[in-house]
Amino acid sequence: MQQSQDGATPKRRSKVLVIVLVILGVFVALWILVSLLVGIPAYRAYQERQAQQQQQQQQPQQPQQQQPAFAQLPGESPQPAGSGPFQAGPAAPAPGAGPDGGMAAPGIADADAYIRQSKVNSALIAASQLKLEIQWHHRDRGVCPVNGVGEIRGANDYNGVTHRSMFVGRTADGDCGIEITLRDEAGDLPDGAKVWLEYAVANGTWRCYSDLPNDYLPADCRS
Fold this sequence. Notes:
Blueprint: H1 2-58, H2 106-126, H3 128-141, E1 163-170, E2 176-182, E3 194-200, E4 205-210
Antiparallel strand pairs: 1-2, 2-3, 3-4
């Protein structure tokens, strides 16, 4: 009888060891799963921040060029003469000019320039997420998106205090682009003026230019 009890003891120990190992395995598997659920979104957010920083560092200041010709979108009605998305906006007053046509005092001119540039910059910041969505769309599908396709909303759905729409399309060179139509009830900017953001698919960089004078624009958007 003593021999039988001694033989049963190792078996019980083996069962206990197996149970402990199974519990440890379940715990490790749960830990790995939780780490993946937390780490993957954090890693993607980190990649997005890195992409935004890289875009800001790589944006070249290019000489003034002709306005791009975006491809006509399917089903889009023709624009009346002198109004299409690539026509020049309303003529802007000369930078630094006073209300009577004379030159304003330097301090007032500097303050006005800062206000104008801040409003344009607010519209550019509002387009930051749209720029990323255009890059992702082109990376995944190999073509430039247009309004209403994938994650891109309608042009008029992108509106705010400083802008009334963001038109997304393709340039004649095959690059992707955004046309921002500005709005300003205060009159610091010509209502309806345009700012263009063009994504060069060949090297993955963005450039910014406008039909506004440089005095109205942030430094990284001047010609």
